[in-house]
Description:
Bound molecules: S-adenosyl-L-homocysteine
Number of strands: 12
Strand order of the largest sheet: 1-2-3-4-7-8-9-10-11-12
Distance between the termini: 30 Å
Helix content: 25-40%
Oligomer: single chain
CATH class of the largest domain: Alpha Beta
Number of helices: 12
CATH architecture of the largest domain: Alpha-Beta Barrel
Number of domains: 3
Strand content: 15-25%
Radius of gyration: 21 Å
Amino acid sequence: MIDLVFDAPVEKKKAPIHLSDLTVAQRKERAEELGLPAFRANQLAVHFFTHYNDDPESWSDIPKELRQPLADAFLPKLLTLVRSITCDGGKTRKDLWRLHDGVLVESVLMKYTDRTTVCISSQAGCGMKCPFCATGQAGLTRNLTAGEITAQVVMAAKACAAGELPGGETRLSNVVFMGMGEPLANYKPVMQSVRNLTSPQPNGLGIGARSVTVSTVGLVSGIDKLIDEDIPVTLAISLHTPDDELRDSLVPINSRWKVREVLQAADRYEAKTGRRYSIEYALIRDINDQAWRADLLGRLLKNKNAHVNLIPLNPTPGSKWTASRAEDERAFVEILEGYGVPVTVRDTRGREIDGACGQLAAAEVSSAK
Length: 369
Ligand code: SAH
């Protein structure tokens, strides 16, 4: 049995409790504990989720003397911006955040013609040890709280609303859990954050569940829990190869849940939600990009409500692996299409700012050590 890290080291000092760590009922209880009427919690939810406003000075609907105590109790500052780096003419922006205990995480905001997406982190580091992923190399520092995960999205929504991206004011439309961490290994905070994203305003951000993508290495127990939630987020499975022999080393959790079991879990998810799932496949030259692997993948996925997202490998520093040749990538696509499987090749947004897949925060984490 491989030695994967599920139990994150306990934080030395807990992150302060935030409105977005709490259910709607708990928000009301907390207000009452402070001797305040429950509607104050609701007012703060409007400030935070509708106006992305955590500045107590400006809360004109709240008596002056209550503003700071309410801010302390409900909206403590969880993320401090260390720096932002942009590329693609400003359409891709990577934000590096410091958490209350000095831990660093990143999120990446990407503006497309038809949508604006934020890629967020669910853990600081990751315990899944996938050898091609920069985050996997660094190991798991700690789980993020629901507040810390949600705040990354609120900050992104705020930047969109403030017109900070090219083209002016826009609405944050999509969220992908494809930053640092394995979301299903930090299940409860991730689900609380998903509820914050998908609940209608004022209790949440009102983003449609189908516009939220949870990407996983394939923790079958987590996928089964997700099936019971009744929140039809888009599920992405990081498969990377259709055969167990190679997957055991590319995605080490495969020694616990095999390709067949992971795909069966994805099919159960699809049966329950009706949602097409994505298969993530980083194409690595001469490792997993052979025609026979495309053929096996095509056979496994044909007639399924699944879509393959090929990602040209973004090599981590010092890696002996590199992206596939153009002709091998093309052949891979054609073979899958021959089975009627929808395929897209992901663009490589954010590469030059280390904001591309698997690269998040790695440079900063290593220089911070
Ligand atoms: N733990 C989750 C989310 C991680 S990152 C998961 O594994 O799904 C999101 C995607 O980027 C995953 O599919 C991951 O395998 C992929 N990825 C990681 N490192 C990469 C790299 N160096 N090049 C291309 N894709 C990579």
